[in-house]
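Notebook, p. 212. Picked up where the previous page left off. The plan for this session was modest: take the two constructs that came back from the sequencing core last week, fold each one, and keep the raw output in the notebook itself so nobody has to go hunting through shared drives later. Recording the first one now, exactly as returned: residue sequence, then the C-alpha cell string.
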Amino acid sequence: MGELSAGARKYFDAANYATVTSINPDGGPQSTVVWVRTDGDDILFSTVKGRRKHRNFARDPRASILIIDSDNPYVYVEVRGNVTMEDDPTGSLIQELSRKYSGQDWKEPEGNERVIVRVTPEKVTLRG
C-alpha cells in the first residue's frame, strides 16, 4: 500500500484541482477534473450516482489521480489505487469541498444522489 508523504499531501490539502481517471467498458481512459481532500493516506472526492466515473468504478475499481501544483505546473503528484464508494445522502463532502475550492456553499441539483469516492493508494509518485 502506498502512503502520502508530507510533500505529496500538501498538494492535496491545498485548493489544487485534480484529475481522476477511470477505465471505460471498452478499456479506454475516462478523465475528469475533481475537487479532493485527504483522509489519512486516502484521497476523497464526490460524484453523483450514475455518472460515467461512478459506473466505471462500480465495474472496475482501479483509479489514477493526478494533482498539479497551481504555482508550478511541473510539480505534480500521481496516486494510483483502488476505489471504494459510499453513499453521501446529506452531501457533506461536496459541501466541504465547495467551501474549500470556491468559498461558497454547494447547491445540489434536485434528484442527484451523492457518493463519496475513496481512493486508497497503492503507488504514489511525487515529481518536482
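Okay, moving on. Second construct, recorded in the same format:
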Amino acid sequence: MKQYTYKEMPFKTLNGISDKTNAIHHDKLYAGYVKKKDEIQEKLKGVVLDSANQTYSELRALKDAETFAVNGVYLHDIYFDSLGTDAKPHGEILKEIEKTWGTFENFKALMKACGMAARGWAVLSWDTFEQGLRIYTGDQHNQGGVWGALPVLTLDVYEHAYFIDFGSDRGAYIDTWFQNLHWDRIEKRFKVYKKCSL
C-alpha cells in the first residue's frame, strides 16, 4: 500500500479567508488528522482480534476512529487542493455541471444550500454507479459519504473553517469560498474520476 504523506497548502493566501484561519485549519487541524490516522493504523496492527464485539471492543473503537480520521484527511486534502485562485469553471467539469443542473448558477445555489444544511461537509461527487455528478452532505467525516462516489470538490462547513473571519455568517463564507476555487485542479481531478465506472 502506498504510504500517505502530509500535503503542503497549495496556495500562499486566499481572498477573504485569512492566513490565520488557513494556518489553524491546515497546519493544526488537518495535520492532527494525519497524525491520528497514522497512530490509529499503527495500533490496528497489534489489536487482539479474538475480542472483537459489536457492542464494544478495541477493534470496533479503532475501526470507527479510523474512518473518522481517514475521511478527515481525505476531505481536507480535496478542500485545500481546490483552493487558490479565482479562475472561472471550464472544461469537462463545467459541461457536466450544466448537463446535471442546467446552469452553473443553479449548481452554485444548490451547493450553497447544501453547505447551509450540513453540519460538516457538502461534497460534489462523481457517482461511479450512476455516472453523474451528485452533491452529498455529511454531518461528520465518517457520516454521509456514499460508497462508489468520488469527491470532486469538498466544502468544509465546520465552524473552524470560517468562524474567525465570518463569525456565524456561513453564507458569506460559502460565497467567498466559491470566489477562491482553483478550477484547473478541480477539472484535472474530475477527468480522472469520470473514467471510473462501477
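Notes on construct two before I forget. The chain has a mean pLDDT of 96.
Flagging for discussion at group meeting.
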